[in-house]
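SEVERITY: medium
COMPONENT: batch folding queue
REPORTER: lab tech (J.R.)

DESCRIPTION
The queue accepted two submissions in a row. Attaching both inputs and their returned structure tokens so the on-call engineer can compare them side by side.

ATTACHMENT 1
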Amino acid sequence: MEIWEALSVFGGLVALLMVISIPLQLLPLLVIMPISYIGFFLAFKSIFSYSENTPTKTAQTAPTPDNGRFDA
């Protein structure tokens, strides 16, 4: 599964939760919105992260593998 497909499934779930919260006077959005923002931020960092451990031509150290995780 490509990352864009997983991201669109996640976006669809967030949109569904937002639509469900409309009859509930939008109070669940106080929980849904911050969680969705954090989730999209971590997905963005995972997709477009620049590895700080990229080897240069002058460096002789072995690069560490990038597993795509973002540890804050």
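ATTACHMENT 2
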Amino acid sequence: METVIGALIAPVIIFTLFVAPIWLILHYRSKKQVNKGLTEEERSQLNQMVEKVEKMRDRIRTLERILDADSPNWRAHK
């Protein structure tokens, strides 16, 4: 059971350490560049990143729902 929890927590940790900070940096960078105007290539890249982040967010939510169903107290384990 612990290995299942560990395997499911890993994507959450990866998201928190890598995807979320990159998303925040890109978000605020894009806000700054919107004032300057984005090129079509930049806009395309930004849209691709947004799609990837949304997919990752959905995956994490699914993993959290699975963990909530299988082990309701998993959030308390640190």
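NOTES FROM REPORTER
The mean pLDDT is 84.
No errors were logged for either attachment.
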